[in-house]
Structures
1.
Amino acid sequence: MRITMIGTGYVGLVSGVCFADFGHDVTCVDKIEDKITRLKAGEVPIYEPGLDALLDKNVKAERLHFTTDLAEAVKGADAVFIAVGTPTRRGDGHADLTYVYAAAAEIAQHLDGYTVIVTKSTVPLGTNREVARIVSETNPKADFSIASNPEFLREGAAIEDFMRPDRVVVGCEDDRAKDVMNAVYRPLSLREFPVVFTGLETAEMIKYAANAFLATKITFINEIATLCEKTGADVKDVAKGIGLDARIGGRFLHAGPGYGGSCFPKDTKALARIGQEHAAPQRIVEAVIEVNESVKRRMIDKIFELLDDKAAGKKVAVLGVTFKPETDDMRDAPSLTIVPALVGAGSDVHVVDPQGKHEGEALLPNVTWCDDPYIAAKDADLVVILTEWNEFRALDLQRMSGSMRTAAMADLRNIYGAVRANEGGFTAYQGVGRG
Ligand code: UDX
């Protein structure tokens, strides 16, 4: 199969590299020349474990190519994937489809023989039909089909998610497109990974519903965590106790500082907006968005309480600023709310993150960046664990607490628990939802 991937952002790049690893001949296209030059030199612009090695392997096997020339890349392709950004539009929460529609029009001009145009970007219901309309209008002679193929990749585990998916969802409405998409995903269906074929709107909806459901699950446990704190219950045990019920499931039940990242915040807002537009308000999702914001504010209250409401002049060490471990992504990270609140209150904030500095420096001004959690915590009045990087899971608590001015910890990922923290010399400790 000859595959063209338009957009070398997170989704486009991971998908392109993995398709090449399936044995397909893949060309990744981007308008940003510098990005393509770097990719050709084997330089991966994002941090995703395993991606650089897989890219290198497939470039060497001559199955993976990079170019800025969309026209050349589209010619003769069996499937052209659109994997460009759909950021939240300013003001109304709607997904901005400018890049998707521009890509569709450009692809249309260069189609050469039957091609399936596949949308990978997360797009609102009806977008795929609009893409089809744009392609037909731009090139009335085009021989093409449309397919919707949402991605379910978790940053930090994206290659594993691509290679061993729970399912692949493909929305398409004719047999020719189905045949091409079956061939694209044959390496997975041969190994019994389910490939689910649906209509176009259904595939679009599956993506939003899946992310909104997961965001709801997290938000549900975050709200239960608040109640646990008031009643003496322990949310970790509650999550275990309910998660062992197969109908509920234990994943995505970790209480924390609120969800962030490139998908959940954007997709919940877009779904709420779509619901309003169709007079079918998604009230649960609307509540999830609101509660998630309040969770972040609650974390700030917790931190200020540990500082005796006197944050000014106190030194605070923040461990982790990316929205989750194993990524350098800062999009909608809880740190973007929590760190500025501390800086604004006059604290001297020292931050450590194994990958976050490059992205984080511009987003978190007036903080001191450190490479070592122990140096960050020296003489500090509080250490805040915001992202559960492995580096922060097995800290030498005695060493850390012994060097602090006040040995207090806000453990917003529930790594240690009060007993271990106290044994490690911390005199004040707060987790999330732990009685
Ligand atoms: C998510 C979806 O999982 C993926 O299927 C989709 O295609 C893209 O969005 P991602 O944003 O990379 O992936 O990360 P994920 O692991 O889902 O975490 C999202 C956020 O939820 C993070 O801020 C994380 O810290 C938080 N989270 C996750 C919790 O607070 N508790 C949990 O139990 C799980």
2.
Amino acid sequence: MYNEIDLDKIDLNSEFPTEEPKRQYHFMAKGQKWVREFEYKNNRRPCFFIQTFGCQMNEHDSETIAGMLRTEGFTETENRESADIIVVNTCSIRENADNRFFGQLGSMKKIKEENPEAIIAVCGCMMQQQHITDTIKEKYSWVDIIFGTMNIYKFPELLRNCLENRKKIISIYDAQEKIIEGLPVERKFRHKSFVNIMNGCNNFCTYCIVPYTRGRERSRMPEDIIREIRALADDGVKEVTLLGQNVNSYGNNCNFDCDFSELIYKINEIERIERIRFMTSHPKDLSDRLIRAFADCEKLCRHIHLPVQSGSTDVLRRMNRRYSKEDYLNLIEKIRTAVPNMAITTDIIVGFPGETEEDFEHTLDLAERVRYDSAFTFLYSIRTGTPAAKYEDQVSEEIKHARFDRLVEVINRITAEKNAEYFGKTVKVMVDGKSARNDKGTYAGRTDTFKLVNFNADEDLTGKTVDIKITDAKTFSLFGEIV
Ligand code: 5AD
Ligand code: SF4
């Protein structure tokens, strides 16, 4: 956690500031008082449970919510049923995310019946859509707080109002809010951290809801980002992942003079930071300067996630991606020439409206030519409010699924072949902790190229970088031995 402020020094009798985040620290101080009284009465601290759907951006937002609650004195619980505050941070990128959320919300009615004092809060991308908040108001009366993606920083205030007045609070902003600096953030890992560098997206790909739920692009000031990363490094962080919907347009239309590649050069100078990663890049904005940064900056990991979405120039045009199949292949060529061992991953959508068999074959062809290290594949999902939702030539579910299966087969074969190239090699692995399938002493970590490596160790090496000789390569992971 960075930027810890002593809440005891805040005078609650003074007027509440209007300036942020000062104002929220006042509410956190009030919250702390409430938490202490709760503890005195109940002989335990109140606890929270956060469920997060969706991307890293959402995960990071949840870390901010957790950071604010912890600052007030709440503890975290893994058990939703016993939580005093439940927060669900939603995603609306595809329809199944919506459905899962409503399923979850339905199951919370019982929690509220058993513990009417519990607070149920929902936030995130889904809340930025009117039809969703209308449905919640109408059908899910047990929800206490609804807030959006642009006012997460206000959570302490919303929570206080809800607890003190015991009334439903709904607070969604559509207007652009400037980014609020200096909120407490909780990290899942001690040795690595997400760092948000910008919010929003200006690209309006025709299938995508994000520009509507996260608003226009806003970049953080470079000095704020550097200050945060220095503080993280002081706190033991060795790896940072810079987050933005399109990091390549960092700094565009801003009142400072620093583009994304310059930001990388600056971060590369920060002592004790060993690895720099970033997500996500739009191919149309990937500059030669950034490619050069890969060669110049030894801390910048040799992995790029470069969503292609489709291999058909025609589909790409209707997606409003603003590059052709050839442009994308040329870009890959340029990257591979400058950084020969770069790992490349991507996102691909199958079954975009009007996608023909020939269009789809272009996608297969592109996948074969690029030879991705791995790829996330998605079935096109209609998102209300986006241009593509109104396109008439929607592809049938049957064809979508059949194409999806064919694509996954190609992608997985290539991923397995790429992983097999690691066999017998010794790689540097930054250890994240115990392996997900932890059978006693199995640990997991990532190579510079983002390959997942499992290995056995007698001691806990979390956060350390170790040399591992790869002895087995599977489709989705590598296995090795410490050397
Ligand atoms: N349907 C399917 N996949 C989508 N994505 C974004 N919007 C949609 C949609 N409507 C995918 C894109 C994007 C990733 C985060 O989610 O591939 O890169
Ligand atoms: Fe969505 Fe396109 Fe923006 Fe990515 S670049 S968030 S796909 S609109």
3.
Amino acid sequence: MAVDCFIVQPGTSLNGMARVPGDKSLSHRAVFLGALAHGTTHVRDWLPAGDTEASLSAVRALGIEIERRSATELVIHGGALNAPSQTLDLVNAGTGIRLLAGIMAGQPFPSVLDGSAQLRRRPMNRVVTPLKQMGADIESQNGYAPLHIRPAALRGIHYHMPMASAQVKGAILLAGLFAEGETVVVQPGPARDHTERLLAALGADIRTEGDTITLRPGSTLRPLNYSVPGDISSAAFPLVAALIVPGSAITLEHVNLNPTRTGILDVLREMGADITITETGLAGGEPVGTIHASHSALKGIRVGGEVVVRMIDEFPIFMVAALFAEGETYVRDAGELRVKETDRIAVMVEELGKMGARITEMEDGFYLYGAQKLTGAVVDGRDDHRISMSLVVAGLGASGSTTVLDARCTSDSFPGYAETMRSLNADVRVSPITT
Ligand code: S3P
């Protein structure tokens, strides 16, 4: 069987300017909230990736008409949802299935939510438990998808989230739109706040005080004219590549700089990274700006506590940066990495190990001594987009050529990844190899 791989040749510095695709978290929410708003929502710079296309298809299967003006421009005719005639397949999208579970719990018709074998391995009790406390009728398979949801009367709850998760918070708040009485979510730390920002922009009665979010149902959601900013989680790959490859200096434009997402920038700067950030305005209710990054002498760092959530998706690429930093890097409080698309601690330690990296795994993190010399190798992205893209960057900092098996999965969040890297002068090609 032929599979697409990345072939990475180190040796050229990264230079120039690029724009990364639209934010994935916002693109999921734009289709879900566009479906719930009464009227016509216009979305530009939407992310046309595997995960978000799955959410879009699910919304269409709920009877919502979505015009596709182009790959990145949507016109959503929102209003009442209708009973789907088939299982809603969220493929690999964890955000898609968990947010949609919250919406479906409040509908007057039954639905079944399911996904790929990978999604079926991801824990669903984190949303099923609070939704059941709201009165939802949901049956999972021992805490995993498929989720069978039947109509039930929901009531608001006061919920202390055991983990700082934007997906859990989002599912509860979206269910709260259909509940009787107010819903209060208390988060243990600042998980990304996109659901709250969007709901407020749509006219929902929602307010945040410290770590407590209160939603009162009853407002009619109004449609938006919405432009999705670039995804900082995608920007992180060329950014770290520029930091570790000598002679590099790049500019990334129109990146989402929501402070609940910028932990990676704070941590890299503390490591000595030469990064300058210029805020240029707002897009979709989120601060956006330009990021300049140049090759830098990085130092190791201790990472734990509050910042972990603000950079949760960036740990695979952060691990690569840390391997190129002088001294010790020590990460803790990051046990959530084990229940992402893959166990991102174990998989990164194993795959980077094939390139000669020595990293010690801990239950909730890892430590390593940096300034390691990596050697090009054949490594496997394991059907996890962020693992695959991080290994490409490791290959750019290694000696010799690297082959990353599984290039396809990067289109779950970053369509055109190789093209973007090449536009910055990095030698990253996609090529089929026979396995
Ligand atoms: C997301 C929340 C995070 C993140 C995921 C996207 C979201 O997950 O890892 O990629 O859009 O709400 P958790 O909510 O599980 O932390």
